[in-house]
TrEMBL record:
This is E3 ubiquitin-protein ligase PEP5. It comes from Lentinula detonsa. One of its GO terms (cellular component) is CORVET complex. The keyword Transferase applies. InterPro entries: CHCR_PEP5_VPS11 (IPR057308), Clathrin_H-chain/VPS_repeat (IPR000547), PEP5_VPS11_N (IPR057307), VPS11 (IPR016528), VPS11_C (IPR024763), WD40/YVTN_repeat-like_dom_sf (IPR015943), Znf_RING (IPR001841). It catalyses: S-ubiquitinyl-[E2 ubiquitin-conjugating enzyme]-L-cysteine + [acceptor protein]-L-lysine = [E2 ubiquitin-conjugating enzyme]-L-cysteine + N(6)-ubiquitinyl-[acceptor protein]-L-lysine. Residues 679-728, 763-789 are annotated as: Disordered. CHCR repeats lie at residues 451-610. Component of the homotypic vacuole fusion and vacuole protein sorting (HOPS) complex. Component of the class C core vacuole/endosome tethering (CORVET) complex. Its EC number is 2.3.2.27. Its main location: membrane.
């Protein structure tokens, strides 16, 4: 039985008991013969007692036998428990069966304890553990009732003389090995000679976990504190009283049983519930707790027995004569249907105390012998004639249908709880209850109260459709709000709710809704920071309805940076607030949003936006200055700053120190954009600040943090212990170039300031004189390729602006246009700089397209394109626009000619291209020709060909040079002829020697008389070589077969030949020499024998 059994009304007033037919009758037949009752119950009059156990149903008879029945009521085990007597009482716990009976040879009642899980090997009956007499006095008295605790620790026996015996520590006695009679000594705890004992029951200790689980279950009127007690109590019921005795715990045995109620019960009319003793009297049913009487249920009529089945209370009335005028509808129906008003009948009633209704009421003409609550959960009624009836409980769905037909939805909900239905089924009952109130009762508020309990189980659209009418719009708002509170709403629900607010102009409820905190602050089981509504939908609907303030609040609070900026810029047009908000974002968020809205901000706040972009590209983080309450509207902040410090005061830029103020109270004055101009920025000021992330107080870092909560502020970090942040990669300035299309003045300021603050580079002459503090530069991006590309892009763009916008103002605060000269000077300084990176080809195209001659010449020189410089001036001379162009050609020839001789040929062609040039530079032409001849830049024939290509130059111009050259050439020819003659004579001599040596008919005669080594007179033995060298044999080392004097010369010649043969295979080297030397290389190859026929034959072989 569950704790619901102890629930009921709070007083003894007779309730209007509703009666239902929740049970159907089925007659149980014998498994072997379907025409009769089970075999065991045919001799019903011989059955002494029936009990339910964990092993099955136990049936005892007057012959002392016990039968164990299965679900088919077929005996699976039988044994004689009390020989020659009968079994009077049985109770089982944990497979241990305790029987009380009588035997012929013993006058006193006999107690026996059996182990149903073990068999006696000799008799195959359950193992008998103990057997002893129950004899508290010399006069034996019959046992009236028995009770056994759930853990077998205590056994209580009630006698007909009003005595109650208790056996303590029975479990310990059974666990120890001993004789069959070894039982704990019983103790008499109560004696009442005039009041027989009619009922016993143990109130078990309440587990601590059950105390919490039972909090949600209904309790009787008196909230007993014993439910929190861990002691074991014994209820004692007599014919006149109900007493309670503490069986365990502190104080056990120190006091006798105390009366808790002065109303007793007859034998069989008291049964132990889960926590209370249930006493059935003719006038009512009482629940007795250990502290006194509890609930009472008015149910008049005679009662012969009361039983517990699950959560039901089964009451059996004694036989009586039916009457058509009886108060019970069941009796009247019996008389009306049978017409028998003379026979005796018994009535069985099944109560549901928790829900206060009758689940079944029936009559039995043969009387009721026993109520069997089977261990498998079914209820049976055994009649006196042996007929066994099964009370089949209807399924819960059938019960609920019966209640629905009678519109008893409240009772259906209570029944669902006692039946432990799952939440979807309970929600469906609430739905049907709501439908009933909505359609039949027109109780819309009550219906909505029921629909609210279906959240999470019933589709919201089912409820919403019912309340779309304008008259029921407030109920709809309530439902939608609860839907959002529980986190079950989708975007459509949020849209509907917000549209309802906006149409009703209910700004207060709209404020309350959008300021609802996340569910994690109310329910710990939910995910952290989970909103009770769809944030994107809420922002969208507020924007569409024109509630920009509310949409901005949501976007700002939940860090939807893009949405907030879109609202402030596109919808509300609050550019200053958007710019202020951007300063509170981290680098990543500010980067993307400025890329999207930078052009709009520049159009409305050019100076402030430029400063912000400068900060993003030059500092590692942007921070918040001042203390701003999160709940303070941004408009209020902007109004407070209007007319004073500009929005740039919230930048973490380099600023001069503000004296007379502390870091926590100082108001940082914002500079104008003019102060950010590179040409007006003092390098010493930058150096003195020491850090770009400071604003007047050195070492005061500011950290980017997420938007604070509603009650938090943004404090300025203290001076002590500044946190060390890891270096962050700064943003690329290239992201924002496109935003300055219509703001070229700000573009120049932006690029110049970024270059100076980020890389310490400037095109301004004044700024270049000052050294830049290395702390300002990015140490982690010096070798970064991406940072290098950013530098190149910045200076390429600046160079283009210097050359394209000659009329740009030097300061945004000045209206006087600036001359072209300063900007061109800046461009020239950029081109001349050895440290400023820029794309040379890009710069060359710019200078060419803008006609910037100085830049063109400088770039050509830096690129080594000296010929292009000369051709440029040549073209200018040809155009006639530059009179000194020819002089520039000669000037640059003097600069580049020594290292690039081919330029002389180009200049010679230029000077002889027209008579005017030749007449002006006659002497220069002669010098050029003389230099070409001396340096061998061009052969004389080439010079003549250059001069003879047109009719400008005459022979007289080169007459002297030609005469001198011819004389020198003739001398060289004569010298060459002499060398050729000498080589021919030497060759003839060598050939003659070879011929003599190879002539076998004319022997060689040696006339040498002295040794070529020691110089002494030759004597035998001596050695003569064909080269006319003779030696003593002793003077030759190791009998060498080669002449020592000629060996070195011959070795050199052989080494030369070997090298030439190796070079013959190196074709790539030969080709490169031919490309460089031409005919000279070929002649040299012939002289080394590279093309000899013998070599070719050797290679072919």
């Amino acid at each position: 039985m569950t704790s619901n059994l102890s629930a009921g009304t709070a007083n003894a007033s007779a309730p209007a008991w509703r009666q239902f037919s929740f049970f159907d009758l089925e007659t149980v037949k014998d498994i072997h013969g379907l025409n009769s009752s089970p075999e065991i119950f045919k001799a019903t009059l011989e059955i002494s007692t029936v009990a339910s156990s964990s092993a099955g149903v136990l049936v005892a008879d007057i012959h002392g036998s016990i039968h164990l029945l299965n679900k088919d009521f077929e005996s699976i085990s039988s044994w004689v428990a009390h020989t020659g007597g009968r079994v009077t009482h049985m109770v089982e716990r944990k497979g241990i069966l305790v029987t009380l009976g009588e035997e012929n040879v013993i006058q006193s009642p006999l107690i026996k304890i059996w182990d149903l899980g073990k068999k006696d090997k000799r008799t195959t009956a359950p193992l008998l553990l103990r057997s002893a007499k129950v004899q508290p006095s010399n006069r034996p008295h019959p046992v009236s009732t028995i009770a056994l605790s759930s853990n077998l620790s205590h056994l209580a026996i009630g006698l007909g003389d009003g005595t109650v015996l208790i056996y303590r520590h029975l479990d310990q006695s059974l666990a120890s090995s001993g004789s069959l009679t070894a039982l704990p000594k019983p103790r008499t705890i109560h004696e009442s000679p005039t009041e027989p004992i009619t009922g016993l029951g143990f109130r078990e200790p309440i587990p601590h976990s059950f105390n919490h689980a039972s909090d949600a279950t209904p309790k009787h009127s008196r909230e007993p504190t014993e439910h929190n007690n861990t002691n074991l109590y014994l209820f004692i019921v007599t014919t006149n009283r109900v007493l309670v005795y503490q069986a365990s715990g502190r104080g056990t045995g120190s006091s006798a049983a105390t009366a808790v109620d002065e109303i007793g019960a007859a034998l069989g009319c008291a049964v132990m519930g889960e926590f209370d003793m249930i006493v059935a009297r003719d006038e009512a049913i009482y629940m007795c707790a250990i502290e006194g009487r509890g609930n009472a249920f008015a149910y008049e009529g005679n009662k012969s027995a009361v039983h517990i089945h699950s959560s039901y209370l089964v009451i059996v009335s004694p036989p009586f004569v039916a009457s058509a005028s009886a108060a019970s509808a069941t009796i009247r129906n019996f008389v009306r249907t049978t017409g028998d008003d003379t026979s005796e009948i018994s009535k069985v009633t099944v109560f549901d105390p928790a829900n206060k209704f009758v689940a079944y009421s029936g009559t039995f003409t043969q009387g009721v012998r026993e109520i069997i609550s089977a261990p498998w959960g079914d209820l049976y009624i055994l009649s006196n004639n042996g007929e066994l009836v099964h009370l089949v409980e209807k399924p819960t769905s059938a019960k609920l249908d019966m209640l629905y037909k009678r519109s008893l939805y409240g009772l259906a909900l209570n029944l669902a709880k006692t039946q432990n239905l799952d939440e979807p089924h309970v929600a469906d009952i609430h739905r049907q209850y709501g439908d009933h109130l909505y359609s039949a009762k027109n109780d819309y508020d009550g219906a909505m109260a029921q629909y609210m309990k279906t959240l999470g189980w019933v589709q919201p659209s089912y409820v919403i459709r019912k309340f779309l009418d304008a008259q029921r719009i407030h109920n709809l708002v309530t439902y939608l709000q609860e839907l959002h509170t529980r986190g079950l709403a989708n975007s459509d629900h949020t849209t509907l709710l917000l549209n309802t607010y906006t149409k009703l102009k209910d700004v207060s409820r709209l404020d309350s809704f959008i300021r609802t905190e996340s569910k994690s602050s109310r329910e710990e089981s939910l995910a952290p920071d989970e909103l009770p509504f769809d944030l994107d939908t809420a922002i969208r609907v507020c924007r569409q309805a024109g509630y920009f303030e509310h949409a901005g609040y949501l976007a700002k609070k939940y860090e939807r940076h893009e949405e907030y900026l879109r609202i402030q810029i596109e919808d509300a047009g609050k550019y200053s607030e958007a710019l202020l908000y951007l300063r509170k974002l981290g680098m990543d968020a500010a980067e993307g949003n400025l890329a999207r809205y930078g052009r709009a901000l520049l159009s409305n706040l050019p100076e402030e936006t430029t400063e912000l972009l400068i900060d993003l590209c030059t500092t590692a983080s942007i921070t918040n200055l001042g203390v701003i309450d999160e709940e303070t509207p941004i408009s209020a902040v902007s109004r407070s700053t209007a007319g004073g410090a500009s929005y740039l005061s919230y930048l973490s830029l380099n600023r001069n120190t503000i004296t007379g103020q502390t870091s926590e109270t100082a108001t940082i004055a914002a500079p104008s954009v003019k102060t950010a101009r590179v040409d007006e920025t003092d390098g010493d000021t930058i150096k003195s600040s020491g850090n770009l992330n400071s604003d007047g107080v050195s070492g005061t870092p500011r950290n980017v943090s997420p938007p604070p909560t509603a009650s938090s502020t943004i404090p300025i970090a203290p001076l002590s212990a500044p946190p060390k942040e890891p270096p962050l990669k700064r943003l690329s300035p290239r992201l924002y170039f496109a935003h300055f299309v219509d703001h070229m003045e700000q573009f120049v300021i932006f690029l110049e300031t970024v270059a100076l603050r980020r890389w310490g580079q400037s095109a301004d002459e004044k700024s270049q004189k000052h050294s830049i503090n290395s702390d300002l530069l990015s140490s982690d991006s010096d070798n970064d390729e991406e940072d290098r590309r950013d530098q190149v892009a910045v200076w390429n763009t600046l160079l283009e602006l210097y050359l394209t916008l000659p009329q740009i103002s030097s300061s945004s605060m000045s209206s006087t246009p600036q001359d072209e000269i300063p900007l061109r000077e800046k461009a020239l300084r950029v081109l001349r700089s050895q440290t400023i990176p820029y794309d040379t080809m890009h710069a060359l195209i710019l200078c060419s397209s803008r006609g910037y001659t100085q830049g063109l010449v400088l770039l050509w020189e830096k690129m080594g394109m000296y010929e292009d410089v000369l051709r440029f001036w040549m073209e200018r001379d040809k155009e006639g626009t530059t009179p000194e162009a020819s002089m520039q050609v000669l000037k640059h020839l003097e600069l580049y000619g020594p290292s690039h001789p081919h330029l002389y040929t180009l200049v010679l062609r230029f000077l002889t291209s027209s008579p005017e040039l030749l007449s002006r530079h006659m002497a220069d032409v002669k010098q050029v020709i003389q230099h070409i001849d001396q340096e061998g830049i061009m052969p004389p024939l080439g010079i003549i060909q250059v001069l003879s290509r047109n009719s400008v130059a005459s022979v007289g111009l080169v007459k002297e040079w030609l005469i001198e050259r011819i004389i020198r050439e003739r001398a060289e020819i004569q010298a060459d002829h002499e060398w050729v003659g000498s080589y021919r004579m030497e060759t003839a001599t060598k050939l003659k020697q070879v011929e003599e040596l190879s002539d076998p008919e004319h022997p060689k005669v040696f006339h040498v008389t002295r040794c070529s080594t020691c110089g002494g007179q030759l004597d035998l033995p001596s050695i003569h070589f064909m080269c006319n060298h003779s030696y003593h044999q002793r003077c030759l080392p190791d009998n060498d077969a080669e002449c020592p004097n000629c060996a070195r010369e011959h070795g050199v010649i052989r080494e030369i030949r070997r090298n030439n043969e190796q070079l013959a295979d190196q074709h790539d080297l030969f080709v490169s020499e031919v490309q460089e030397g031409g005919f000279k290389a070929l002649a040299n190859a012939f002289s080394r024998g590279l093309f000899n026929q013998s070599r070719l034959e050797t290679v072919a072989a």
